[in-house]
Design goal:
An 8-stranded parallel beta sheet has the order 3-11-10-8-7-6-5-4. Strand 6, helix 4 and strand 7 form a beta-alpha-beta unit. The chain has 12 helices and 13 strands. By secondary structure, it is α/β, with parallel strands linked by helices.
Length: 354
Amino acid sequence: MEKTLKIGLLEAKIPVMQGGMGVGISLSTLAGTVAKEGGIGMISTAQIGWREPDFKKNPFAANYRAIKKEVQKARAIAPGGILGVNIMTVTRNYAQYVRTAVEAGVDLIVSGAGLPVDLPAYTEGSPVKIAPVVSSLKSFLVLCRLWERKYQKVPDFVVVEGPKAGGHLGFSQEELERFQRDSYDEVLLSIIEKAREYGEKVGRKIPVLAAGGIFDKEDMCHALALGADGVQVGTRFVATEECDAPKAYKEAYIQAQKEDICIIKSPVGMPARAIRNPFLEQVGKNTMKIQHCYQCISTCKQKEIPYCITEALVHAAEGDIEHALLFCGENAWKCEKIEKVKDIMKEFAEAARM
């Protein structure tokens, strides 16, 4: 019997949610194709308007406009498919990003990089499903209690991110060193148990998705065997024909060796995982002068940071790999060729039948 992923009235034929990857990596083409193939497609709102002509002058307006454009284009690719957006909680003007996504007609919103304590307020009155990204049982329980007390609401589903994820991570450097697979499994199991208890309390299931390092069907089978309802997959989808990233970015994944993948300290104050390249070597030695602020992350302290993360990620989205920050998951080195989303989804569909 094939396992599907049900979130309220939404049902993904294959229990896979593609991870949201900014800047410009998971936009309409990737998200729309994943949704078309039976999964849940996710668009990252992180500086999504970088190609808009007024982005530098008015990044907020450019980003809001781009959210609506990308959702509309994804809908054209996958009519009837399940589409969502990933909005980091530390995004400046977070509330307006959420409201814009609701107006754009997304099916769900996922928020990590901090606890989205007021997310229910910004989606109230809409059918949009909402979920936090958490990395510990404590953070899940804290959020559930806050939402219950303030909004009489529990998460519609939850994403449990482990230490092998790409981009910004929800762990300190010390926690990353301690947090191996076995301990992630323990965290996942504990959250599955509590989500079941909360679900029984409100009379509906709260699905739990395993995330961080899910690369192939063996990883998915392991997560489902532990009791997860589905998985979130990011890195595997980067090296696909349909990914919105430029060819040079995809090739960087394919060329990367295991030892090229490293943990860095992001300028916005969080540890992150990326591919070692000339840019990282340069910023490790010199501070780059900040010419302009793009109003991206609320935790960024312009006078203290070694470089502008928006500029570094835009360079990646433009294919200027030598001057770019190349976010990736721990398993990026496993990418060996450019694949098709359809083939990857078939592989995960096999895991859902095991």
